């Protein structure tokens, strides 16, 4: 027994429907009708492999091409938080359940149906029949158990899966879960987090070229800036979203200009993170540019142990002093919404926080005076990506209320290099305030997951914000645990609401706004493509077409 440690369209419409419809139940499994997979190029080592190409119908392109905006170094699906490999993993691996990234509904993946409740804290999941990995080896419940055990031991996913006390395989097609809390409406969504791979894969294979049972297989992997990830169709896939062409190629281009030029020159069919400053140029060239409201946000994180930031009034004052609407208008071209809670108001589970940080310099000055702070000087560590443009404006707003900020730009690795280990007692972490982006909605959008990401008992609260030592943290942790013990969303929501209020009042780490995700693509070249709100590109069900009307 293992004890773990701590339509595809319209994201907005989908989340609104979930909010209106109440809890996701375990009574059924939302699954699209399977599409009969077409044949794929033959595997020379497999005498029984089909010989016809996947893209047999007229007008279908041989290769789907895209440009992605984030690099990565490790395709290992265990505990991954890499934006590029999370997205790639949606195509290469399957979970028991698949989180539809447009609606955030949990649909059946490897599971044949919804979990069957055995007792209050025990569930069984039956696997769909005749599923094999891309190498032809059978996928059994032992592979699922191994994947959950390995992910449960990982630093990141362990916290998300801590409600599972044991997972076992009564037979080859059954997986049994023992829980310490029912999890109510979010059980299937959390089970969707784990991607399944063969138990036989070594650590080296997982880190270099892992295989799964999804519609695509890795062919070559170079996810460094300027590199390329190539995929081939998995002709053994039996799920609902088979590959629609022979190959897929993703160019890894961190630079906005290079990525945009690739699309304009038609070297790729789609690109993620289309820059606002070139949106008109993209549209003028004939490409489609769409902004999808999501969770992606810039946050401020405070050193809650270091005076004067250990005083909540100082943290609140620095938020009241920022003209967020001006940031949105100037740097986001209006494609964002000021935060009124941890969650945006178009997410299910949203609750308008009791404390909302509208622009109020006078209130900021008053709070600083009450805290006995005069002429405060601080260092603002800012990520050198898209949020770096916000930092000077934030510093100017703080200057207006008597706060001097020195802006220091750092890449992500350097930004958190000395903020990822819990300090010795009596030792302060070497920072004042951090400005960085974040988007845990890649993993899901339920309240428990989002709260747990930044405010759980993990690296964020113990080795970064240092909020875990406060009474408010303990109170929120108890509320979150109580919510997990409830079996219905109606019982969970009031408890989550109290968590949102505590987070908004304490602000150890807090969003400034929730931005829309911009994606650009050639409509004539991608049939049935819809952009998602989270980081990454999702091409499940999308067919690449030869451009019927070239520009």
TrEMBL record:
Entry keywords, A to Z: Signal, Transport
Molecular-function GO terms, alphabetical: peptide transmembrane transporter activity
GO cellular component terms listed in the entry, alphabetical order: ATP-binding cassette (ABC) transporter complex; cell envelope; periplasmic space
Residue ranges crossing the lipid bilayer per the database entry: none
Residue ranges of domain Solute-binding protein family in the record: 109-461
Presence of the UniProt keyword Transport in the record: yes
Entry keyword annotation includes RNA-binding: no
Gene Ontology process terms (BP): peptide transport
Signal peptide (residue range): 1-19
Protein name as it appears in the record: ABC transporter substrate-binding protein
Taxonomic source organism: Adlercreutzia equolifaciens subsp. celatus
């Amino acid at each position: 027994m293992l004890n773990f440690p701590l339509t595809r369209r319209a994201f907005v419409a989908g989340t609104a429907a979930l909010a209106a419809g109440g809890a996701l139940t375990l009574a059924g499994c939302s699954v699209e009708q399977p599409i009969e997979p077409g044949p794929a190029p033959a595997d020379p080592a497999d005498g029984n492999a089909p010989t016809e190409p996947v893209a047999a119908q007229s007008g279908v392109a041989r290769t789907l091409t895209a440009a992605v905006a984030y690099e990565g170094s490790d395709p290992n699906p265990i505990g991954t938080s890499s934006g590029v490999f999370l997205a790639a993993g949606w195509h290469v691996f399957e979970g028991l359940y698949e989180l539809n990234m447009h609606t955030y509904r949990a649909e059946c993946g490897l599971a044949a149906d919804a979990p069957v409740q055995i007792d209050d804290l025990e569930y069984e999941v039956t696997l769909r029949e005749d599923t094999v990995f891309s190498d032809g080896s059978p996928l059994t419940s032992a592979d699922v158990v191994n994947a959950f055990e390995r992910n449960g031991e990982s630093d990141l996913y362990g916290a998300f899966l801590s409600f599972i006390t044991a997972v076992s395989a009564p037979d080859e097609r059954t997986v049994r879960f023992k829980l310490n809390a029912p999890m109510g409406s979010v059980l299937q969504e959390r089970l969707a987090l784990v991607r399944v791979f063969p138990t036989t894969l070594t650590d080296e294979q997982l880190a270099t070229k892992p295989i799964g049972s999804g519609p695509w297989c890795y062919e070559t992997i170079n996810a460094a800036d300027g590199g390329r990830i190539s995929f081939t169709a998995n002709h053994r896939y039996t799920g609902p979203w088979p590959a629609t062409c022979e190959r897929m190629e993703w160019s890894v281009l961190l630079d906005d200009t290079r990525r945009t030029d690739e699309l304009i020159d038609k070297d790729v069919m789609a690109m993620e993170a289309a820059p606002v400053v070139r949106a008109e140029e993209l549209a003028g060239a004939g490409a489609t540019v769409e902004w999808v409201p999501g969770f992606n946000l810039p946050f401020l994180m405070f050193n809650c142990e270091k005076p004067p930031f250990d005083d909540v009034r100082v943290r609140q004052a620095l938020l009241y002093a920022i003209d967020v609407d001006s940031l949105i208008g100037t740097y986001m071209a209006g494609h964002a919404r000021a935060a009124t809670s941890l969650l945006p108001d178009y997410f299910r589970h949203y609750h308008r926080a009791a404390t909302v940080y509208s622009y109020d310099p006078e209130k900021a000055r008053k709070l600083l005076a009450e805290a006995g702070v005069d002429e405060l000087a601080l260092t603002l560590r800012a990520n050198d990506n898209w949020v770096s443009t916000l930092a000077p404006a934030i510093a100017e707003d703080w200057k207006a209320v008597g706060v001097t900020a020195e802006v220091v730009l750092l890449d992500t690795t350097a930004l958190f290099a000395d903020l990822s280990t819990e300090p010795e007692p009596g030792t302060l972490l070497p920072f004042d305030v951090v400005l960085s982006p974040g988007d845990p909605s890649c993993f899901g959008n339920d309240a428990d997951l989002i709260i747990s990401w930044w405010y759980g008992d993990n690296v964020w609260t113990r080795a970064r914000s240092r909020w875990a030592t406060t009474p408010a943290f303990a109170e929120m942790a108890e509320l979150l645990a109580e919510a997990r013990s409830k079996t219905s969303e109606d019982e969970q929501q009031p408890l989550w609401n109290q968590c949102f209020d505590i987070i908004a009042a304490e602000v150890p780490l807090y969003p400034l706004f929730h931005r829309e995700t911009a994606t650009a693509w050639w409509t004539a070249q991608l049939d049935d493509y819809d952009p998602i709100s989270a980081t990454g590109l999702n091409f499940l069900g999308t067919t690449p077409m030869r451009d019927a009307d070239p520009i």
